[in-house]
Model the fold of this input.
Amino acid sequence: MAKLTKNTKNALAKLEKGKVYSVGEAATLVKEVNCTKFDASVNLAVRLGVDPRKANQMVRGVVSLPHGTGKSVRVLALVTPDKVEEAKAAGADYAGLDEFIEKIKGGWTDIDVIVTMPSVMGKIGPLGRVLGPRGLMPNPKSGTVTMDVAKAVGEVKAGKIDFKVDRYGIVHAAVGKVSFDAAKIQENAEELIRTLNKLKPSSAKGTYMKSVYMSSTMSPGISVDAKSVS
Done:
């Protein structure tokens, strides 16, 4: 077993074994137990009482975090020529169509989110084997296939994220950076938990939110009481 570093020991000493913290307490603690020298991401891992193999228990959605994630998100707008300037004005890092489709076919994926319009999806479909495994495929459910491209770009830039339960029934999402005020981390985390509660499938039986953990990159996880969110 790897030896614990002094920083990790100090971090663990601040956590009470077996204690479940309110979101506000966890947001304060996650800043105190962070061991990295860089501005680490703060993440939530929410284990849900669902079976993701069943289509009617697949939990996926979008949430607009009030304070964003703190990450700069690179957005590509795959749009017709008449929409290029509009997309760029809304904050898209790249906007265009055929030249970017060719770049993606050549393996270019130096982006975080792709926003597009319904009329263009026919051209994007064949890119599925490149974009799919990287989670970059635009999807109407996540609001990234829309007629209002400028609005979608603006929302992504402002902190709208999409999430999906993994095959183990866990949703992972970034809810800020350790440099954020604890109150901002708390409000972002609560918004995500509220959104997940609204998405509870009617077919899910038993406890829905089995566990919630908050952690920063390389820090210990802090057990969070999901019931502390009203």
In short: The chain is about 30% helix and 20% strand. The first strand starts at residue 41 and ends at 48. Residues 182-198 form the longest helix (17 residues). Residues 57 and 201 are 6 Å apart (CA to CA).
